[in-house]
Amino acid sequence: MEVILVSVQPEQERVSETGCWCCGGRYPEAELVRLGDHPEVGVCLRCARWLQRRALQRFDELHPSPAALVRSGIQAVRATVIRRGWHRRGALGAVLRWIDRHLP
Predict the structure, then answer these.
(1) pLDDT per residue as tens digits for the range 40-60
(2) Integer Cα distance of 104 and 97 in angstroms
């Protein structure tokens, strides 16, 4: 009976933080969304939310409806708040950010 010694190489550890393909930030794997046919592409949760809003905006432009008008109004208000920096102002900013998390 012949004995064959086999050495096991440790599996390469996956990088604990990878980059977001949108903003370039470094995030743990749990905070990235991977694209179906392109798992090498990772987008952070914040950028994924931004992309979702842009996709909905584009859909609304192509398919006008009463709901699309409401969402475009919300987006116009959101843009004004950001342009004026109101989202960074103490209690007012906290309320505006809370509202933003619950709007489409």
Answers:
(1) 999 999 999 999 989 999 999
(2) 13
